[in-house]
Amino acid sequence: MKGKFANVLKFLGFLSIGVVILTLVFRSQDAAFQAQCVLDGIPSDECSLLDKLAADLSTVKWRWLGFTLIVFMLSNFFRAWRWQQLIEPLGKKVYFWNAFWSVMIGYFANLGLPRMGEVVRAGLLGRYEGLPVEKVMGTVVVDRILDVVMLLVIIGLAFMLQWDTLSNFVIESRGDSEGSGGFGPLLAMGVGGLLVGAAMLIWLLRKFSHTALVQKITKLAKGFAEGLRSLTKVKSKPILILNTVGIWVCYFGMAFLPFFSFPPTEHLGVDAALMVFIFSALGIVIPSPGGMGSYHFMVIQALALFSIAGDDALSFANVLFFTLQIGVNVLFGIIGLIVLPMINGGKRISLADTVEAESQSTVRPEAV
To answer: What is the pLDDT of residues 161-171, one digit of tens each?
Structure first.
């Protein structure tokens, strides 16, 4: 009961983060919209950003969002296949559809508690396939490490192809930070704090190695490490690379195809899609449900680099967020909760119980 209450509090906390960021984004865009109305001589009672957003929604070409949905589902096929590869070295080839629907339910869970989706999908698949959850969790960490590597590669590629655009953005974003000491001291303090924290953790584990709690942590860590080692034991590394590249090509397509669904962005090309792709990925990292608010802010910043007005960029972000990021993940998450028991002989595992149990017994990974 306490665990469920704590999860509710966490959800409300993360939701409040998203609502605050989204409110700030809306207020800043509304102020800019009102200022533009003054310049254009439009009366204030005829100048409503909400009306503008509603009107923009009516201009959306939904077939392009349909194509985007197909690409999104294809990316999840690649991810489930890759996860299946990572788990196989643990001694069992899991059923593909168990992996696929566990991934979809994980996305659904992330809308409630950011990062919890990784724990949920590991818990569901581990229980349905009869595998130790801590080992499956290790493969989830490998899965996300591969994603981080790909994101860093793409960011590096973006700097190579769009050096002037990105360097100017970074300089403008820093503002007067150099006058206050820059990032160097903060980085040094952060690294130093991590080293001190790691040393203290090692000392505590050794000091209290005889206790039941530390022994349980050690057992979890060993299973976790075995899951991490799965990367070196994958049978077909070329297929693993193919799946990894496939996931991120699909992600890029999900940034590019929606441009054609909205008149103000339909003229944009792959260079703009690359910026939206990177900025939105970074926005979703911030812990709010589905990246609410932070996703909008980052998409607006990316489109501003290509002279898309803030109100138009907000409309574009809203359409993508509430249809694909929220609507699709909710729909397929619920379908997954129905389908998983059906393909496993009627065996039903409660999502709420999985969240509570696994959050207490495993270490949650950072996700992209």
So the answer is: 776 666 666 55
